[in-house]
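Supplementary Note 3. Input sequence used for the single-chain structure prediction.
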Amino acid sequence: GVDTIRIAYDDFQTGALDETLERQYFLLGGQQGDFVRVVQTVTEGDLLPALRILNADFNAISRMADTRAGEAVAYATLPETGWYLIEAGRQRGAGAYTLAPSRLSNAVITPGEQVEGQFTADTPTMAFVFNATIEDRVFATLTAVDDDFQPHLTILDLNLNPLAERQATSRQARTRAVMPRSGPYIIQVHNAGGRQNAAFTLSLRRV
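The predicted structure, written as discrete structure tokens, is reproduced below.
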């Protein structure tokens, strides 16, 4: 076994790495289907970070996202409910860092599919993950089942940069985007006003 530090979604921990300690491990609990993003950010020194998400057998289940200097970002869809290891390491250099995991989505949508959902007072915003290929044109439609709320719809990349956004004053918000690279993306749906408990449908298609 390895020494671990427990961490939770939307929490953060700090660490430091050098030639005598090349990696540290953090223990994260999650549910099957969680789409997880972990960010390792250098706060001091010339550390070049390296980051992986591992299952219980120490097999990597993560992929890397494009990042800026001094940062490593890994993401994965958890295959089953349980505990996972986040390996914060270094490619070279030494320094201090922060580590922050977040659950970007706990639902998946595929092109050609329509899903149903329910906004509540506690969850006015929900997120769905989908996979696309570079230059895919995707078209998303968020429809209010009830008339008395305003649907808001955003397509984002893994760094949470908006690629397309639409807020409607009527029952339906539609938006489209051309995918800049192959990989997973996020559709965020939001109840922008009106009744708190409101049903919706979300459809995604490739055009």
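The chain has a mean pLDDT of 91. The CA atoms of residues 118 and 146 lie 11 Å apart.
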